[in-house]
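Weekly sync notes, structure subgroup
Attendees: PM, AL, DS (notes)

Item 1: joint prediction request from the bench team. They want all two components modeled as one assembly rather than separately. Inputs as received:
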Amino acid sequence: MTDTTDMRERAPRPRGPADEHEAAEILASARLRVDPELRAAVDSLPGSLRRIALYHFGWEHADGTPAAGNAGKAIRPALVLTAVRALGGDPLSAIRAATAVELTHNFTLLHDDVMDRDTTRRHRPTAWTVFGDTDAILAGDALQALAQRLLAEDPHPGAPAAAARLAACVVELCAGQRTDCDLEGRAPQEVSLEECLGMVEARTGALLGCACAIGAVYAGAGAETAAALDGFGRQAGLAFQLIDDVIGIWGDPTRTGKPARTDLAVRKKSLPVVAALASGTPEGAALAGLYGRGRPTAVADPELVAQAVERAGGRDWAQSHAADRMSRALGDLARAVPDPERAGGLLALAEYVTRRPY
Amino acid sequence: MTDTTDMRERAPRPRGPADEHEAAEILASARLRVDPELRAAVDSLPGSLRRIALYHFGWEHADGTPAAGNAGKAIRPALVLTAVRALGGDPLSAIRAATAVELTHNFTLLHDDVMDRDTTRRHRPTAWTVFGDTDAILAGDALQALAQRLLAEDPHPGAPAAAARLAACVVELCAGQRTDCDLEGRAPQEVSLEECLGMVEARTGALLGCACAIGAVYAGAGAETAAALDGFGRQAGLAFQLIDDVIGIWGDPTRTGKPARTDLAVRKKSLPVVAALASGTPEGAALAGLYGRGRPTAVADPELVAQAVERAGGRDWAQSHAADRMSRALGDLARAVPDPERAGGLLALAEYVTRRPY
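Output from the run, pasted for the record:
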């Protein structure tokens, strides 16, 4: 997706596998630093709510016995801490802020799973399937509150601005989820590419951007730098989703670990499909016939649909658009952190999320 | 419930109807001061979420046409502003904080209505019945975020402490709602009075106490004063709920405007019923036979159940316990605001919520 030759020209170090290693180290370190604060926040919950949160984060099984923990990749807290470091601040000063971002992310996961009726999250049954809708909603509400409480009690001078950014981001995440549900109910031809991109930016890009911007705030950077890092996270988030959508259709199941074509089988309005439908080509019109509303899911062969999307230009569009978004992300990063050596950690994280088995 | 003779001895002014008038004025003034800030916060939401919130607050009909607005009695914002004034602060400095409390209250109403499947709120269909569960959940999430954003952007030195208190209160509200749902699923005999009182304190008392404590924080008062005012609001909230439960069983429908005995018809575990069941009296045992789990709702005549609750001492217990809580509330108030003249506004509000048509 991203051109590694370009990368080499931008930064003095060799890129590629080394970056992946660097990103993995950054993520593991963020997990280690944030987990104690995250666990303390969850442990502060009253018993009934604590149990749901402990299950959601993978620290307990459904029956309340201890589990190894699988709280995700910690990309968002890693972005906070790495942004602080890139701008010359002390990452240790931002651990509460990084934890608040992670709590907020998990609040939205708990609620999104209820609304979307998703039954699996991080290879385990979702909280609502185990505890019911009410418990999952309440645990999510409590995690949002815990996130804001951490920031409100943080004496760091950047905490109020970070809290305001995080709250504004939650509103954007909610609006994105609202649009997503709205688009789900419409026929694919009635969904514009612009709406779809706006929804993805709100659902995926906003919190990645917010994490980076909060890092800037904690490093004491100015508004322009925070805005540029927000843009970096947003554009990288869009690139990530575009690539994720491509993998969802054309990925090799033996490499991705996901069954092939499931997105097409459930007629998900992923970006390559919407782009193909909006292409104005005869192939796009043919695709509309296969993918229209009201047709039983099983009618069209997902293999044929994938070919139709590709013929209508959906795959090429998604790949070039992902490259374009990644290039915008790198431009924003260069504005916020002109020294490539200092920008290396954020670059590695962006490449990590966008370079996936495929 | 409260003894007005006692009141006259505490404060130099005549009490009774005058207080009611004073409370009504305080509430109307709080509504007037908070509404513009509340409306601005709601108007800042993206379109799809804004529509749900505008409906919930009564500013729009379900079809999006303007409505007169019916955002409730504004008791919580009035407590914030009146507490600030009672402690010698400037209520105008706390309008954002009062609005944040009101937004938080309405976030919990939106979510509670989804979980409890309640279909009516402020004499109108609840948001989830009009827009669906997803929209009501998302609008609630967004209101919690807006509340925290208002405080995070408030330059008042008390804002961070207020934000932390409000977030901690949300966790308590969620735990209270969780306990309430848990108690709903149990047989009345399996519910202890202590659990029930704890649940009511969390669901009703906590936010009233938090509103008063935030007022103290904004007036620059110390931790002890804030704690005393928190206690005042909590105890007044418990007194309110006890009286509300008594009215729900023995209130005169022509005076309360509510149909009689509905709480009993749906086998609600209201405090007088739980007290009667826990009384250890033969009448309590007889009541358990009428009110047990698994019996069809229509079997027991609510009139007979009301008599059984009364014979088992549930009514007397609730009335004397309400008086006891009100007296604790007044003790807390006197500690926080020793000058009765200054305490008059808060006292009037506490009497307003506990002295109801009956």
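Discussion: Chain A has one domain: 4-354.
Action: AL to compare against the crosslinking data before next sync.
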